[in-house]
Structures are given as C-alpha cells and as structure tokens.
TrEMBL record:
Taxonomy, superkingdom: Eukaryota
Domain Ketopantoate reductase C-terminal: 164-288
Source organism per UniProt: Conidiobolus coronatus (strain ATCC 28846 / CBS 209.66 / NRRL 28638) (Delacroixia coronata)
Database matches in PANTHER family: 2-DEHYDROPANTOATE 2-REDUCTASE, PROBABLE 2-DEHYDROPANTOATE 2-REDUCTASE
The protein, known as: 6-phosphogluconate dehydrogenase C-terminal domain-like protein
Any single GO CC term annotated in Swiss-Prot or TrEMBL for this entry: cytoplasm
Ketopantoate reductase N-terminal domain ranges (all copies): 2-127
Amino acid sequence: MVCRSNYKQVKNNGYQLESCTWGKQVFIPDNVVGSIEEASELHESYDYVIVTTKTHSSDKLVQDIKPVISQKTCIVLIQNGLELEVPYINQYPNNSVISVITFVGVHQVESGHLEHFLPFKMNFGNGRHSEESYLPQDLSNIANFESIIVDSEIKYVVTDQMRMVSWHKVQFNGTLAVIAVLSGGLTLQELLTTPHTRELADRAISEVQGVAKKLMGKGFPSWLPAVEVHHNQMINNPVPYKPSMLIDFEKGLPLEYESTLGNIVRIATELDYPVPICRTNYALLKQIDIKNVTKTRV
C-alpha cells in the first residue's frame, strides 16, 4: 500500500477503523511504502495496481505508475469522474483496465483513523467500453478481482455498462458536491431539505441526465437508484453528510472537479447540449478554488 501524508502513522500502527459494517478494528497492510518508486524497488510483480487518488493530475499519474506495471498487471481505477480510463488504455494498451464506481461514506478524521458511516457499494467492469476492444485476459482479470471482494460484505454489481454507471454517479458528485461548496458549506441534508437549493440541485442533475442521454442514446437503467431514492438516503442518513469536495474546501485543498463537472461541461459543449446551470457552477467553482488554495498558501 502506498501512503502519503499518513505514511508514518499507517506504517507504524495500521489503520484505526470505526466502521458501520466491520465495527472497530485495526487494519494492518502487509506492506506500507511512501511512494510508487519505493513499491517498484520491492521487485514485486503486481497482479493488480489499484489507483484511488484524487484526479487532479491524472495524466501525470498515468506515467507515475509505470515502474509497477508489468505485462500481466491489471490496472483498477477507483476514482471519480468521466472517461478516466482513456489515458490508461492509451498508455498501457496491452493491460486490462477495470473501472470501479463506489458509493461509501468515510472520513479520515485524523492521520490513519478512518470513520466509515455509510455502507460500501461498488459497481465494476471493463474499462474498455465496447466488446470489440476487450483484451483476451480482461474477463478473467475481472473474475479474479471479484473473487477478492466476494466475501468482504461489500455489496457489488459486475456490469458491462460502466460508462453508464460513471454518468449516473457524476450526476450527483458533479452537482450536489459543487452546490455544497458554492452555498457556503451546506451538508447534503441541509441542501436537499432547503427548497431553493433543492430546486437548483434537481435542475443541475436534469442537465447532466440530458447530456448522458444524448451521448449514449438512452437514459439510466432501472437497476441504478433513482434520484429520489438517492436524495432520501442522504436526507435520512443519521450523520450529517459533507461531500469530500466540501471537506477539501474547508481544509484549503485543491478541489476535484475537472474530471466531474468540468467534463460534463466539455462533453455538453461537444454535443451542443445546453447546460446553463452546470456551466455557471463550473465558472464559479473554478474561481473559488483558485482563491481558496491561494489564500491557504499565503
């Protein structure tokens, strides 16, 4: 496991976990390193390289993981955003890429201390969008990945519709998280129970749905949760829920929005589909992010 700011804590003590699923326990990884370079120096041949970082500089990360990628390595992307698989497929055309979309509520309350308060749900499948582009080893790599998590108490779905699943999630984290920041720090419960912010959110979500439908030619399948179901889960959550973007904003950290909201706006532009609310949110958030990070560094 590659750790960054919490490296010393996790290396020495593991992760202190308070989980709604697994209770209180300590998770000690088999090996903890402080960088990809250090991982490569172990001279291991990795079956899976799992990428869970924010997507601020995904193009750089595509290059950074090169020392730990062998012929047999399968790259697993557990990140937020649209079309994230493309640069990895282009850089590593002979390696399987698994796309993973997760729904989970977890905060690192302090270094190495994780508070997990919403059950883990996962959808995953081939990062290549069409069967014609599948590699011979893709299906076996997906099956082996499933065998790793099948007994973990994580609810999951294996699907060949990962592009659709990505758009389904981005309709929420490309809208609700953004409005939480722009509104001055509303939790999702506050945002969704306040009439004017709820209306704004629903209109932004409708724009994203329109872009997705024009791009893929159909709406979201019925097995993915409807907007109202998602909203009710957020409203009824026993813990006031702050999206990670809002937490990053409060800490003065760079915000992860180019891969979500930024790509929504760019793809809408390519399709000539109007998204006035998303476009306005993008312009405002971009400026707020610049100002917030600059203020923190001064």
